[in-house]
Amino acid sequence: MLSENQLKAFEKDGYLIIKNFINDEKCQKLITEMDQVIETNNFMEQIKTISVFLADENSSKAADEYFLSSVDKIRPFLEGKAKEILDKNDKSYKIFNKIGHALHALNPVFKEATFENKVKEIFKSLGYIKPIVCQSMYIFKQPFIGGEVMPHQDGSYLFTEPLRVTGIWIALEDCTPENGCLEFIPGSHKGPLVTRFIRNPNKEEFESGKFLIYTNGVPKFSYDNSKFIPAEVKAGDAILIDGLVVHRSAPNLSAKSRNIYTFHVYDAHNTEFSNENWIKPSPISFLPLYEN
């Protein structure tokens, strides 16, 4: 359970660092399991044959189709510089950006980490009545090439009416400003949702391959950089993230990776998960937290 002081801090800032959420052994277990996921699924060979990773005229459409159909699958996504590295056959770099979006449903090790009692107690503390785990990701933030994540709000991608979405972000390695730790604007969750990322409602555009749009165009945040506070954490710490709080992460230009596991939960009690969201509810991957 979250303490009264923790709940007050989360309400005030829109995020909360929870120290020692999991131990070193569990961190290593998740890292090792991800190595196994990559190897057993033969992702390195698979990515060479998927059109989404090829530079052709259909690549954008293929990328969106690949993304949209990943809701109930375990799929690799690449760093921005991956194609350049693959073309050079440079094996000195690791090129996966993340694996998503159904690790919590399809992999026993990640499912155990997602549905453990400690997680359930957190959402009970937050007053969630019918929490649903809707997506999960393992994010690598690879050394030297780990890409920047621009300022955003998670509610833009997982919208409910009213908005009731919270993420748990678990550090499996130390996260510092050098390797791209999260940065937050404390209190920004008390502001509005700036934009939403949705399936294109224009039928003609959708059928032509323009599947996804931002409701107000691609967000162009003009936040004062001085307002962002680095959330530097140790391996095993977790960060609770409100769906409205503005956060970002810098590129990883260091020699150290920044492996993390994250998943998002919304409360299905007296809310509606928008049918405009990029992600469509699936009985495979939209799982009740308290019942698993």
What does this 3D model show about the protein?
The structure is a single chain. Helix content is 25%, strand content 23%. It has nine helices and 16 strands. It has helices spanning 4-13, 24-40, 43-46, 59-68, 82-87, 103-106, 108-114, 117-125, 203-207, and strands spanning 15-18, 74-78, 96-101, 131-139, 149-152, 160-161, 165-171, 182-184, 197-199, 212-214, 229-230, 238-242, 247-249, 260-267, 272-273, 287-288. The protein is globular and about 55 Å long. The mean pLDDT is 92.
Fold topology:
Elements: H1 4-13, E1 15-18, H2 24-40, H3 43-46, H4 59-68, E2 74-78, H5 82-87, E3 96-101, H6 103-106, H7 108-114, H8 117-125, E4 131-139, E5 149-152, E6 160-161, E7 165-171, E8 182-184, E9 197-199, H9 203-207, E10 212-214, E11 229-230, E12 238-242, E13 247-249, E14 260-267, E15 272-273, E16 287-288
Antiparallel strand pairs: 1-12, 2-3, 3-4, 4-14, 4-16, 5-13, 6-15, 7-12, 7-14, 8-11, 8-13, 9-10
